[in-house]
Amino acid sequence: MPIKESDLPGVGKKFEIELDDGEMVVVIHNTGKREVFRRPDPSADSEKVFEFGDDLARTIGSIVEGAYFQPVEPDTQETTLPGGILLEWYELPPGSPLVGETLESADIGNRTGLAVVAIQRDDEVIDSPGAETTLREGDTLIGVGTPEDCEAFEEILTG
Fold it and tell me: What are the GO BP annotations of this UniProt entry (predicted)?
């Protein structure tokens, strides 16, 4: 699925994404507005599918990314962000040395380089968890880091 990116001077950026049944075009305006168009084939005119503001776009993006629901097992989940940075989901297994630790006492960032950006706990999402947040068995930690950071975290996850 090739993605073509181009600058739109004075407007923002355009992303053209080839699909099996046509093409999707996403325009991100400098103002934060997003527009999504569909083009059935390269010679056809684009038709606007929807438009939304920056906050809604980020919310939808996190839903699509999987921050609210994981349709696959966390240990198989991997998303690569620009620059080769990974967005990973890790479930705290029973007996993990991290269970009962706070983010501060676990010192994950200094020990591994991984940044914990959210925690899925049952039906709740704790976004930007504070240092005082205590880790519980079954929590799913959402972390961002390099592949090396992720490997180092996986080593301390199970002890």
Answer: potassium ion transport
Same domain (yes/no): 46, 104: no
CA distances from 94 to 99, 117, 155 (A): 8, 22, 15
Secondary structure E strands in the chain: 3-8, 12-19, 22-29, 34-39, 47-52, 79-81, 85-91, 115-121, 124-127, 140-145
* Confidence (pTM): 0.53
H-helix or E-strand spanning residue 1? none
pLDDT along the chain (159 residues), means of 10: 87 91 92 93 87 87 71 57 83 93 95 94 91 95 92 89
